[in-house]
Specification:
Blueprint lengths: L1 H20 L7 H5 L5 H13 L2 H8 L9 H25 L3 H9 L5 H13 L1 H4 L7 H14 L11
Helix pairs in contact: 1-3, 5-6, 5-9, 6-7
Length: 162
C-alpha cells in the first residue's frame, strides 16, 4: 500500500510539474473546462489535470488542448531553417530586410507585420552579438539570437514562440 501511495504521489507531482512547464495550467481536461486566466482558476485547472491524469492522456492522444508541436518542435524547426538558410539569413539580417529573415521572425512567433519589423530591426541593430565572427555555427547563431531576443523581450512582446 505504501508503494502505491508513493507512486501516486510521484505521478501527481510529475503531472503538476509538467503542467507548470507548459505555462498556466498546461493542457488537459481542466484547461478545457476552465479557460479563464486568473491565478485561482488556473490552479484549479492544474489540480483537475493532475487529479484526473488527463494531461498525459491528452498529450498522448493530441486532445484536450494538447499538441505534439510545442516548443521542442518549434526549436527543431528553427534549427533546421537556420542550418539550411544561414548564409542568406545573415546577409538579410545585416541589411534589415528580406524574406528569409522575415520567415525566421515568423518561426519565432512574430505574426503581424509590425512584430516582424521589430524582430528584423532588433536583429539588425544587435547583429554583432548574433554573428560576432564569420564562422558562427547554426547552433551558436541560434543561441546568440535567443540571447538577443531575451535581452529585448519588452520590444518583442508580440512575438510568442509557443
Amino acid at each position: 500500500m505504501k508503494r502505491v501511495l508513493t507512486l501516486v504521489s510521484l505521478l501527481i507531482a510529475f503531472t503538476s510539474f509538467s503542467s507548470w512547464a507548459a505555462g498556466d495550467a498546461g493542457c488537459g481536461l481542466g484547461s478545457v473546462i476552465i479557460s479563464k486566466n486568473s491565478k485561482g482558476l488556473q490552479l484549479l485547472a492544474m489540480t483537475t489535470n493532475s487529479f484526473f491524469l488527463t494531461q498525459p492522456l491528452g498529450i498522448t492522444s493530441g486532445t484536450s488542448g494538447c499538441s505534439s508541436s510545442g516548443l521542442v518542435m518549434k526549436d527543431k524547426e528553427i534549427q533546421y531553417y537556420v542550418e539550411v538558410n544561414q548564409n542568406e539569413i545573415i546577409r538579410q539580417m545585416s541589411m534589415g530586410q528580406g524574406d528569409k529573415v522575415e520567415t525566421l521572425a515568423s518561426l519565432y512567433g512574430c505574426q503581424t507585420d509590425s512584430s516582424k519589423k521589430i524582430f528584423i530591426e532588433v536583429s539588425r541593430t544587435e547583429f554583432g552579438k548574433i554573428q560576432p565572427h564569420s564562422h558562427v555555427k547554426p547552433n551558436e547563431f541560434i543561441e546568440n539570437l535567443n540571447q538577443v531576443i531575451n535581452e529585448n523581450s519588452t520590444r518583442l512582446a508580440d512575438c510568442h514562440m509557443s
